[in-house]
Specification:
Elements (H helix, E strand, L loop, with lengths): L1 H18 L3 H21 L3 H24 L3 E7 L9 H9 L1 H12 L3 E7 L3 H6 L5 E6 L2 E7 L3 H13 L5 E6 L10
Parallel strand pairs: 1-2, 1-3, 4-5
Antiparallel strand pairs: 3-4
Helix pairs in contact: 1-2, 2-3
């Protein structure tokens, strides 16, 4: 009975690892799969294999994967809402996250295995553009988004093409700035 339940859980975690949209989540699911495998070895009276699987499979391999993924680039996106008095509320943040263009931006970065990190900032546009912590600055004004970035940024060019392909250009404007240093994704 317990072996059957363990096998079902192993299948569940294997499917979750395959279907995970982020690599870090897939690694966590694989670690759980490995712990369940070690438990199954223990149930079948193979304690040496159980110890090896627990130590190597769920411990060492997971740490190696996570260490490698730490080098995965995080792309920091500032979201500005100048002139909105409700810009710091949860309702406003949920509103912006539901915008079609913001969902497309998130999917754009996830497909390229960049981790998008949205930061809702109280800064002005000039302050945000001068801040080297932001790789992209999005300004929301009355259901219209303006994406600001360096004129040298290949990401901005690709993002603009994605908006054109998906027909989102009527709600998004891409503005390139020559004086902004080409952003490097932060690790």
């Amino acid at each position: 009975m317990i072996e059957g339940l363990t096998l079902l859980l192993m299948m569940l975690f294997a499917l979750l690892a395959i279907q995970a949209s982020l690599i870090r989540i897939a690694v966590i699911h694989l670690a759980a799969f490995s712990v369940l495998t070690a438990f199954l070895y223990l149930q079948f009276a193979a304690p040496e294999l159980a110890l090896a699987e627990a130590a190597i499979g769920s411990g060492l391999v997971t740490l190696l994967y996570l260490a490698a993924l730490k080098r995965n680039k995080v792309y920091t996106i500032a979201v500005l809402a100048e002139g909105h008095r409700y810009r710091s509320t949860d309702a406003y943040i949920h509103y912006v996250e539901r915008l079609r263009a913001v969902r497309e931006i998130r999917q754009f970065f996830e497909r390229r295995e960049l981790e998008p990190q949205f930061i809702f900032s109280e800064k002005t546009l000039e302050e945000a553009l001068a801040d080297s912590a932001f790789d992209l600055v999005i300004r929301e004004e009355h259901d219209r988004l303006t994406a600001h970035g360096s004129s040298d940024s290949f990401v901005l060019e690709e993002l603009e093409m994605v908006f054109q392909i998906h027909g989102t250009t009527h709600g998004v404007e891409v503005v390139r700035h020559d004086d902004v240093a080409a952003p490097e994704a932060h690790t």
